[in-house]
Amino acid sequence: MPSAAATESFSAATKEYAFDAVLLDFDGTILDTTPAVVKFWHSIASELGIDPETVLATSHGRRTLDTLALYDTSKANWDYVSSIEARIPREFSTNSDVSEVPGSRELLTALQKAGARWGIVTSGTRALISGWVDRLGLVRPSMLIAAEDVHVGKPDPQGYLLGRKQLGLRGDESSVLVIEDAPAGIRAGKAAGFKVLAVKTSHSVEQLRAAGPDWIVEDLRSVSVRGVESGLVKVEITAAFM
């Protein structure tokens, strides 16, 4: 049987859905900061005397706190993590080190203008997200669940469940769309009981499908906001993977 990569087709018909809220991951979903993160981990690994390639193999989609705990527990504290993550937008943010995922700026702006319930649920710290938002002039989320706000990171659903609560939504009575790029985040969204749209920015279709999302798209140009009615945000999804 041919692999998904050999037969993939982003050609599903356009459909509109209604949700109480939209929750988005940040790195890999809104921004592609892979070159910046690679430089960051090479710098930190050098300072700590550990192999950067080993660290990079275990860090994507995982909180920096949890990654550091694997190698140096003395550094696995929020004061240290926040201080080093704050360096990323300042020290590793040349034009070649960070790029916006196509359609991300437009989607955030549309959610804000429509008055939709939305927010960011990320494995990054508040210092990191604030730094990128300021550096690039992105819409600032009114609701942010950052790494230090949860006891357990993705794929545990704690962050997404907390995000729903912070938006004032009740459990079984609400419908939430999660937008993610990494298998750990997809699994977190599904474990929370939410619909999940995966963006093919950092992983292959096979890797994304294995995590069980409801849709896979190439980038956020396939997701648009059609307005808010009776508190529900209308989201149009086009050219999803078939």
TrEMBL record:
NCBIfam families (UniProt xref): HAD-SF-IA-v3
A Pfam family hit: Hydrolase
Superkingdom of origin organism: Eukaryota
Species for this entry: Aspergillus nomiae NRRL (strain ATCC 15546 / NRRL 13137 / CBS 260.88 / M93)
CDD domains: HAD_ScGPP-like
InterPro entries recorded: HAD-like_sf, HAD-like_SPP, HAD-SF_hydro_IA, HAD_sf, PGP-like_dom2
One Gene Ontology MF term: sugar-phosphatase activity
Name the UniProt record assigns to this protein: Glycerol-3-phosphate phosphatase (GppA)
